[in-house]
Amino acid sequence: MAIALQQRGYKVKLVERSAGLVEVGAGIWMAANPMQVFARLGFAEKIIEAGWTVKLLRLQDWQSGDIQTTNMSQIAKEYGFETVALHRGVLQRLLFEQLEADSVRFGCEVESVTQSGDQVFASLSDGSSCASAIIVGADGFNSQMRRMAGLGGEKRYSGSSSYRAIARGAHILPAEAENEAYEIWAKGCRVGFSKINADDYYWYMTFDAPAGEVSSASEIRTHAETLFRAYFPQWIGLLQNTRTQDILRTDISDLKPLTQWSSGRIGLIGDAAHATTPNLGQGGAMAVEDALALADTFKELGLSEAAWKRFEQLRRKKVAWTVSTSWSIGKICHLGNPLFRSLRNIALKKTPDSVMQKQVRRIYSLDSTSDRS
Predict the structure, then answer these.
(1) pTM
(2) Stretch 153-168: mean pLDDT
(3) Which end of the chain is more exposed for a tag (fewer CB within 10 A), N or C?
(4) Is a pLDDT exceeding 60 seen at residue 368?
């Protein structure tokens, strides 16, 4: 967001709670839609160089094998890019390097906001304050800016939790398949993975669980090993090359649709506005798309309440479809009943190409105002 605004001539100050850049999280897949945004901002090639290109995505059943395959190279012919997998910390560093010097105030957070006329005033945790024309809340699923702006936000638990990690120095796929990504569905769980660089793999596992369950690091590893051995023994090398302390556990939830994404001159983007479950791999992508669309809208209409409203009109339809579709996928991937699982697999295998192409267009086409100019 800040990069796009700075490139359009705006002065931007980011307030970041953490003390500095740290390697956090596991991996992330940047699909063709955010890659198009990065290209417009001038640094897509840096993302590609820092990550690993995914040319084929395999969706499999743990017993019967391939359900669907998606040729990402074919998608690239229309949308310019294949999916790029990389470490979240690497992506964060690359984005930071595109900012103007002194754009980020680390170790600080917004404690309160007030609006008066054409300005917004923010009180910060270091005792200082600042005034601005607008405030963009990009502070994620548990957004404090959403709360301070009075925009609500009801969380919806999916019934599944997840493990995410990096397998370092792993040798999982043969050389001829190293540009493939896999997601395998099983009874009450699934696993997915791809390379993120020449040496390492990103992997994730989802499983049915009550909300808020707490596990120790050793319990997490033991549980993951149990599921790998029961359903994914071919891929247990992922776990064997992962340090126990590196396995992150996160419940999978989304936000019920907000009535509005802004209040006056304060607005939200990304997970703060419309957190989605990860089943389409589009959470980060939606935030990146938001950034370009909002920057273009500000350039068109100025730093105004009207721009916030226009941005929401522009983005809400695609976001709503993404959140809804992702939620629906989450409800079918863990099926345990063999008959239902078989029927699901047959239905997915027989999905007409026209339906698949329509879904591809909905995912990878951009909503930016610049598309209409």
Answers:
(1) 0.94
(2) 97
(3) C
(4) no
